[in-house]
Specification:
Structural class: mainly alpha
Number of domains: 1
Distance between the termini: 13 Å
Low-confidence stretches: 1-5
Number of strands: 0
Order of helices and strands: HHHHHH
Strand content: under 5%
Radius of gyration: 15 Å
Helix content: over 70%
Largest sheet: none
């Protein structure tokens, strides 16, 4: 039972760090290229620990992001639940892909996330993002490998202690 707490703590810290990374201001030119860190972290935990990181985990991570970013309440939660549904649906296949192929699948999920966000903005009547924001799934794809390796190393190190 003592092994359960560090993983839960690592999950919580990684989600909080992802939210903070999204809050850090970037120059106007780089802002559209910011990877969606929260989606990457939620996808990682959904792949590695589906018994702990399910739809409820994704929903609460999304609500935390909604409160932190000041966006339409429930938008991030909806996006995270839809992402986690896709991760859960294709988990058995994705786990056996090499990291570069997982990154391509994650890019497709991030692109789906952008489509969902655009649909939510259209229904809510809020302004759409500029066209450059559609480049974010590419940077997310590029960051999947390093993020996966760092979180995997931290998780593995916790199991050894």
């Amino acid at each position: 039972m003592s092994r359960e707490r560090p993983t839960g703590l690592l999950m919580l810290v990684s989600v909080l760090l992802a939210v903070v990374l999204m809050l850090i201001p970037l120059p106007e030119m780089l802002s559209p290229l910011r990877p969606y860190w929260l989606a990457l972290v939620v996808a990682y935990w959904g792949l590695q620990l589906p018994e702990k990181a399910g739809l409820g985990f994704a929903f609460f991570a999304g609500l935390l992001a909604d409160f932190s970013y000041g966006t339409l309440l429930g938008e991030q939660a909806l996006r995270m639940v839809m992402l986690m549904f896709l991760v859960d649906r294709f988990r058995s296949r994705l786990r056996f892909f090499p990291i570069w192929q997982q990154a391509l699948a994650v890019a497709a999920m991030l692109l789906n996330d952008r489509i969902v966000a655009a649909a939510v903005h259209a229904v809510a009547g809020t302004p759409q993002w500029p066209a450059a924001y559609w480049l974010s799934p590419i940077t997310g794809m590029l960051m999947w490998g390093p993020l996966f390796l760092v979180l995997d190393a931290l998780r593995y190190r916790r199991r050894q202690d």
